User: Fold these one by one.
Assistant:
Number 1:
Amino acid sequence: MDDIMIRNIVDKVIKNLSDQSEKEEYLPIEASARHVHLSKNEVEGLFGKGYRLTPKRELSQPGQFLSQERVAIIGPKGMFKNVAVLGPERKNTQVEISRTDAISLGVDAPVRESGNIKGSSSIFISANKNMIEIKEGAIVAKRHIHMPPKDAERFGLEDKQIVSVKVFSDRPVIFEDVLVRVNKDYRLNMHIDFDEANACNFKNGVKGQILTEKGK
Amino acid sequence: MDDIMIRNIVDKVIKNLSDQSEKEEYLPIEASARHVHLSKNEVEGLFGKGYRLTPKRELSQPGQFLSQERVAIIGPKGMFKNVAVLGPERKNTQVEISRTDAISLGVDAPVRESGNIKGSSSIFISANKNMIEIKEGAIVAKRHIHMPPKDAERFGLEDKQIVSVKVFSDRPVIFEDVLVRVNKDYRLNMHIDFDEANACNFKNGVKGQILTEKGK
């Protein structure tokens, strides 16, 4: 074989590989159970002056951890005990529940992007013998994708972009209106809540595929 | 205007109207809460010899009714009280729950088409002081569309066909793998369960649109 033939073959192999990588837009997915983020103020209100959350294990997003502490969340119609508290402490306390949870608790939690709690539902939180009310902060987390910049580049997406995601389960759905959040500290992962997880019969290991407007 | 001109105009108007009707593929949707269908045998086991269900109000599907009777359903991890019983009596007892319910109850109910209960989960049902076990019959109902033949013709669909349905809510999803059931006694309606309803923030009046393979 001469050089030109070899070069042609190499070109074809490279093209083939890059075509394939374009197709490999598979997303890991995680289902988030109900959980609570607490501010320092609320940590102290529930666990005592000077108290800090105790990490139990790391979560998929770097720096985030499941704490050893557990709380109850309470609404006019019900309560959930033994709810996970995620650390580290945040600026504002935020309670993330599903619509099903919201109905059980009797709170009207809106679907919101994490951090956007203005005017969201009030809720009560208790631990040990302490019980506090947060005036706002109970939300249903809007489904979203954590994405580091290198993946954003690969997918051709930007922070705050809205995409659809097809879930390859045995009860397949396409989630529209999925928020892309790009940050260098993120690990690639789509987060859905348990209503969404159950609606598509999600099991660990089930993957998604991003459908942009073009691909719809 | 001569006859031919008028005929051309009429043809255009008719074509326009039929184009529009093709676009008007909007589907009414209903969310089904957990409920129970009982066989005569089980009605008697729960409510006494010779007992028959008492209709309380008619449901969207002709001939089907919500009965005045209520039951509890019980699994190894939990129970739900005050569960609706739908009539009339069926050949086989069937308990329809969501995945969320199945997890709460601790039963492994498979996603199944109504009536296909072979090998599905066992569950206990109680009413008054009676409690019975059904060996199989607890399922998560596969999402489906009840469709009379005239609508099937309009949509170009057949009994047992699988379609996708886009839901026009403020948390929009496309449900894939939706079963079409055609029967002259049906009224056009898509049925989803509460996990699916909550995943798309369904409210009464939210409509769907059938996407066939062609339209995907």
Number 2:
Amino acid sequence: MPFELAPSIDLLRRTPAVLTALLEGVDAAWFRGREGPDSFSPFDVVGHLIDGEETDWIPRARIILARGPQPRFEPYDRFRHRSRNADRTLESLLAEFARLREDNLELLRSWRLGPDQLELPGQHPSLGPVTLRQLLAAWVVHDLGHLAQVARVMAKQYREEVGPWVPYLPVLTDHEVPRS
Amino acid sequence: MPFELAPSIDLLRRTPAVLTALLEGVDAAWFRGREGPDSFSPFDVVGHLIDGEETDWIPRARIILARGPQPRFEPYDRFRHRSRNADRTLESLLAEFARLREDNLELLRSWRLGPDQLELPGQHPSLGPVTLRQLLAAWVVHDLGHLAQVARVMAKQYREEVGPWVPYLPVLTDHEVPRS
């Protein structure tokens, strides 16, 4: 499916509402659970998505659009949220994420990007040359990947409770070795 | 995490709202996409969840609670939705699922199940002996597994669009051989 800006923005717009519908007001046992030692709980995912709003997607798009001679992105800290959000509630993080996302999408719309701009280059610190189009497609996929992760990690909290149903519930055996 | 009825009902209550936030009004290219030939699109998942409301979870709980000598479940048709929903819109299915789920949870609450009832036995046609508690835990996990699937299948529609980002987006390489 080829990348298009308007439906991509439409999907990005949905993520805070999806996470709020799934997580707001749930028991901490559900949103603090993990699937392995260095992996994210649903709480961590919301913090990680906030980090993305503040330090990843739009800052990198700005670097590309500045058209400087070295459009090199800053490396991204996957664990910035851990210290940042140590004393925060899930509800306050959900509200902050919704606000940041709304502002960022308003900015993205205001740029009125055309096909030529979408092909502008950036330099990823470890992946090498990328385009603005690939950056924006990766933003959408990154959201959806973390939504899938939240649902999967929540499902695994009942791993021992379903008895003989395990082979019919493949989500319970996805990512046996956590990889995100 | 041990099964508890109230938080399980709370999660089951959320699923229609989560799916509506993610899917209502999106382009058909997003909700008709699959990750492999015999696997479910997001549209199929909503139909499959409706089948679950009509033929799986509550009907099976009723069989258990009837305490007959042979509490054997009917086999479940994973592809019932295909012919049933051939002419339906996604929006009408989302609304139908929300209504069926609400009614089923109202019924479930009305049973005021206690610990003894949760241990009552049923007979799964292929998995063998199960308890009502395991059935209800499996219902929750089944929902969350299909939410994860919807997000994953949507993410994969942009597989070719993210360029060099693939190794940083593990959702794109989950279920390379579809298994649900």
